# Entry
Amino acid sequence: MSLDSLIEESRIMAYSGKDYMVIKKHMSLKAGSSEYLNLIMLKADEFIVEYQLAQQERDKSVNFILLGVFLFIFGLSLNIFKMIDNDNASVYLNGTILIGAYLIVKNVITLRKPIEDFIPNQQKIKTRKEL
# Structure
């Protein structure tokens, strides 16, 4: 197999949540030389880090969904209690309901994206030019 196809296979394994040692064991069987294995494992290490960063972003979306559910239920329950008391303060409570619904919808859409969409693009590190 070519080096590019092995690197692509290691990327797929890393993005599916495989551990470094599992990838290394699998690639050691397929890589012909130790140079290829070292190159593949360097790239696999980068892929694992990218996957972990993407998982953190997905976990953040789940936290915002839970916050949205809490705000929605809180606003709805207070709105029901205010309607029972015939109080006209429901304008502020409707805002809480809308913010909760917005957080839920926005983060459910974000959570449904594939894992590759969470991975940041490679950015060049800009260094100051020394005078």
Q: What stands out?
A: The chain has one domain: 3-118. The chain has a mean pLDDT of 83.
